Amino acid sequence: MTIETKPAPVVYPGDDSTISWAIPWRVLAAGEVRVQLRTAAGDLSTLALGTDYTLAGVGASSASFSLVSIVPATGDSVLVEPYVSAVQTVDLADNDSFSVETIETALDRLTTLAAMLEARIGRALAFSAFSSGVDPTLPTPAAGKALGWNATADGFANVEAESIALADGAVTTAKLGAAAVTNDKIADATIQAAKLAASVLTSTWAANVDAAGYELQAAALKASREVVAAAGFAAGVLTANFANGSIQTVTLTANATTVTLSGFVAGKWSGGLLFIKQDGTGSRVATWPAAVKWPENTAPTLSTAAGAVDVVSLTSFDGGTTIAGALVAAGDTGLAFS
User: Fold this and answer.
1) Which one, 72, 175, 260, 334, has the greatest CB density within 10 A?
2) Can you tell me the distance from the alpha carbon of 322 to that of 299, in angstroms, rounded to the nearest whole number?
């Protein structure tokens, strides 16, 4: 029998229901097929004949197989491929009868074996036909090493990952996925400005950047703006957390009998300005915590006029244990907060 369809691997997608598929070539023996299942998660398993699947049509021009207890889900894949051993099982005796079917079956098995090897070689890495004098032998795997060309570029060698050089400007914004580069992936001093394309250093930010408390040194700021946060005020409690912003606003609708200040960072000069506005009634007062230290040890008196705005500076060096307070503007009128 001729082989009109070249034996080649076939991949069938799972769909949560199908368990039987065709094998579009002649299967000469039950053991000469391999069936594998790859899940959507990438897990690969080789299925066992009789236990995981059954075969039908062995010896015919085409065959089929059916899974026994597995139903491939959507996203899973089932592979069926020829799996022929490179052995010769035909033994012809001298002066015996000549069996055409025996010879043709042996030739069919050789054809299937050749097609199987062709498919595997086609999936393998290969040098260009123009390459010569290159040793394809891979070195013994070594932990923490990268696979690279040797010093004479005629074979492979284990190399230190940090020895792989980047051409100047080779790293561009488009090549870096979001969150792809983290602190623990970069050794100190391994990234230099010359290795980064200009687009990496000058691209417009499309989202907020959190430096997590680290320093930005020798920066020249141009047209910078400060985020304005709303301080909280409810039931006579004024709450200003300067971690939310160094400029905060609040409108007093009653006396602030308690003022809670937070968001200061120990070892850093931190804090900000608090814009305090009187409501339409006016004459609202604030009772400041003892941690706030005022000039001449005297807390300022807030403006009393309705709608008047006072600006108070509140900064700290020790995380808020002591806070330097100062009235920097008083009685501003007509100032809108938004």
Assistant:
1) 72
2) 14
Pairing of strands 237-241, 232-234: antiparallel
Q: What is the rounded distance in angstroms from the CA atom of residue 129 to the CA atom of residue 85?
A: 29
Cβ atoms of residues 144 and 161 within 8 Å: yes
d(CA 71, CA 67): 7
CB count within 10 Å of CB 261 equals 22
Q: If DSSP codes are grouped into helix, strand and coil, which group holds residue 106?
A: helix
pTM for the model: 0.48
- Contact indicator for 155, 137 with CB cutoff of 8 Å: yes
**Dist CA 318 CA 328 (whole Å):** 22
Cβ–Cβ under 8 Å, residues 314 and 323? yes
* Total Cβ atoms within 10 A of residue 337: 11
Classify residue 49 by burial, with Cβ atoms within 10 Å: 0-12, 13-18, 19+.
middle
User: What is 137-188 written as a DSSP string?
Assistant: PPPPP-TTEEEEE-TTSSSEEEEEGGG----TT-B-GGGS-TT---GGGS-T
For residue 234 the two structure tokens come to 């409810």
- Calculate the dihedral angle through the C-alpha atoms of 307, 255, 296, 270, rounding to the nearest 10 degrees: -80
Q: Is 268 helix (H, G, I), strand (E, B) or coil?
A: strand
d(CA 165, CA 257): 64
SS3 assignment, position 253: coil
- Per-10-residue mean pLDDT of the chain, 338 residues long, equals 80 96 92 95 96 94 92 97 88 81 86 90 87 90 90 91 71 67 62 65 74 81 90 97 96 97 95 97 97 96 96 97 97 91
Task: Take residue 246 and report the two structure tokens written for it.
Answer: 């160094």
CA distance 167 to 195: 6
Place of tokens 């931190």: 270
Give the end-to-end CA distance of the chain in Å, rounded to a whole number. Answer: 87
**What values do phi and psi take at 109, rounded to 5?**
-70, -40
Rg, C-alpha atoms of the chain: 39
pLDDT score of 89: 81
